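In this supplementary section we document a worked example of the pipeline. Step one takes a protein sequence of length 198 as its only input; no multiple sequence alignment statistics are reported here. Step two produces a three-dimensional model, which step three serialises into structure tokens for compact storage. The input and output of this example are shown verbatim.
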Amino acid sequence: MTTSQGTGSGSADNNQDKLERIKKEAKEDASSYYAQGHHEDHDKDLKAEYGKPLPSVDLGKEEFNMVRALAYLAFGGAALALIFILFFIRDLDNRVDTMGKEVGNVDAKLDPFKKEVNDNIAKLTGDLDGLKSKVAQYERLTAAIELKRALVTIQEIAADSSPEVKSKSAQVVASIQSMLDEFAPAMKETAKPAEASV
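The serialised model returned by step three reads:
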């Protein structure tokens, strides 16, 4: 019990001391604390320092420093330009590669279309050639039919005519017959599809 009473009175003394210190600080003037770094002597020293003339500068040294600063600036600019160029060229290379791949993809996609167009053009050309040959065969067939009509007509006219007309008509009939022999293969080729359709 005595120890606890001793500690109790000791803490009361401590609290009392603290209270005394706080009261003492409250009575003190705080302006002296905040004005520690400001002295009139210091202001006088600064005015005297600013009043002194500046020392002369060595022109050669100044020029050398200027050249050195410009050299540093130039080297820095060159380094930045080099870095920019390297990144730009790498990016450009990537873009060119990407563009090449895209063009290749477009070509690959267009290849079936090109093949189809070429096949259709080839088929159309073949159809046109076939149509031309059919038209030519039709013209030959029409000419052969007209020649046969002319042959029959001449033979009918020559049957009741004079011998002179008969001899001339025989020459015409022979000419028509030779022409019909030339048209015979065309007539046979055209007759085959006609027979097949019947």
